[in-house]
Amino acid sequence: MDGMIVMFAPGKGDREAGIKAIKDFGIPNAFLDLTMKASVRFKQSDFVSSLLDTVEILDEIYTTDMGFDPNPWRTEEKINCDPGKGEISVNLVDLMEFLDLKPDGTMDDKKMKEAEDAFRTWKESDAFRRRVVGILTEEGRGVANYKDYGALSRWLRKHFPQDEEYRVLVHAHGGDGNTQDAASVEAVLEGANGVWAAVIPQAAQSGHNSSMVFLDNMLQMGNGHVLDDFWLHQAAQCARHIYSLNFNSYAIPDDCPIWGARVDQLLHTAFSTVSGEEWRQRRCKYYDIWGDDARAQIGRMTKSTDLQHKVAMLRSLSRGGNYRISPLVSDVETWRKRIVELGAAVVGPRGRAGDHVKEVRDLGFALMNAGIRANMNEAATLKQLWDIATRNKTEKIRCDQVAGYLKAQQHQGEKE
To answer: What CATH fold (topology level) applies to the domain 5-230?
Structure first.
C-alpha cells in the first residue's frame, strides 16, 4: 500500500466509503474531491465545514490509528524517494466555475471573497495546516483556456504559498482549443508545482493533459531533472500498455504525441530531431530505450492477433453517433440515448430503450466490479446486456440495484 491514495468526496454521506477503505486496507493517503457549487452532477453542500470535518477525521486516523508522523510534508529531496504517508490533497473540482473566472483573469468579487474566506477558515485548523499538502484544481468540460490555468495558479499560490508547505497542481481537460498541455506549462510558469494527470492523453470526453507530455515540455524548456527524477527512458512502452489496459488494443492512435506511430516514423530526414539541424537537437529518442532482446519480446507481446483484429473491427463499427458511453461518467440518460441511436441492433424490432436502460447500466457496473473489461459503447456489448436484462425481467429474476456504486454516483449526482 506504499504511496496508495484513495479518492472520495468529503461530504458527510460521500466520505463514509472512503474512510472505511482507509481503515480496512490501511490506505495511507487521501484525495478529497471537493465541489463548491451545485450542478447537474453534484448536490449542494456546506463545502467549508464538510472539508474541515473530513480532514480532522483523517488526521485522527492517520495520527492515532496508523501511527503516522503528524506532519507528512516531504521535501523536494524526498518526494521522489519516500512514499507519502498521511498526506491529504484537496481537489477544488469547480473552482473556475465558482469564481466565474473571466478570460482576462478577473473573477466575481463576491465569489472570490467567499472562496478566500473558506481558505482562511481551513487554514485556521491545525489539522488542515499539517495534513493538507496539495491544493489541486481542474475544469471538467474543456472550456477553460490555458491562460485560465495560469491566472488561477497565480491566485491559488498567493493563498497557499510554497513556504507554508503546499503544492499546487492542475488537471486540464481537452476542448476544441486543444490547449490542455499548454495549460500545464502555463500553470507552472505562474507558480504551480506541476500537474496531476494521467500518463496518456486519452480520456472519457475530449482527453486531458498528459503527465508524460508535460515532463517532455519541461525537458525542452531546460529542466533536465525530469530524466533523473522519473524513469522516462522506457516510458513510451509503458504508455502503450496503459493504453491497452483502457482500450483493449496496443494500436495507439497514430497522431498521439511522443509515442504515436506517425509521430515516430520519419517522413523526411529534415524532420529528424536527433540528426541534421543542430538547434535543440536531442542525443537520441529518450523514451523508448531497450536492448535488442527486450525489444523483440515486446514485439511478440504486442503483435496483432485475431482477438486484436476483432477488437479493432468492433471499435470501427461502434464509431459515429451523437452519444458515447463511458460507464463511470455517463448518466442514465446518456445510456438511454446511446441505445436509442443504435436502435434495433440492441433492442430488437419491438424493444424500447426505456424498458431496461437502468438494468443494462447496472449490469455494466457488475462487469466492472467483477474485473471484466468491455466496451460499453459497442452495440454488441449493449445487445448482450439488453438480452440478459430482458430475460431477467421475463423470468422475474430479481437483481440487486447498484445504488452504492460510489464512483459513478460522485460523477453523476445523488440521483444516480
So the answer is: TIM Barrel (3.20.20)
